[in-house]
Design brief:
This protein has one domain. It is built from 2 helices and 5 strands. A 5-stranded antiparallel beta sheet has the order 2-3-1-4-5. The radius of gyration is 16 Å and the shape is elongated.
């Protein structure tokens, strides 16, 4: 069990989902993605829909998204991670990394 001082901070990830070309499958995929806690979807443009995920376990979420019928590709555009604080009086260290 982790204490409050060592608890994982949520990572913030910007994603682009590439969906199936079939509109009926797209609708189902969007509904499934929208139901995922921590995921906010943007405006659907053709086969693509942007999303922002806030999660302490983003890799597990990415794997789950890849298994959604109608999702053909999940691209990670940006990730921001806040390092846990050992001293609550010190500012958090934020690490950002653009996707390559």
């Amino acid at each position: 069990m982790t204490s409050a001082s060592t608890a994982l901070e949520p990572a913030l990830s910007s994603l682009i989902f590439t969906l199936s070309a079939a509109p009926e499958i797209q609708g189902s995929a969007i509904a499934t993605l929208a139901a995922h806690a921590g995921l906010t979807l943007g405006e659907h443009q053709g086969r693509w829909i942007p999303g922002v995920l806030e999660s302490t376990s983003p890799r597990d979420a990415f794997r789950a998204f890849e298994r959604v019928p109608g999702v053909e590709l999940v691209e990670v555009v940006y990730v921001e991670v806040t390092a846990p604080q050992s001293d609550p009086d010190e500012p958090s260290a934020v690490r950002t990394a653009p996707a390559v």
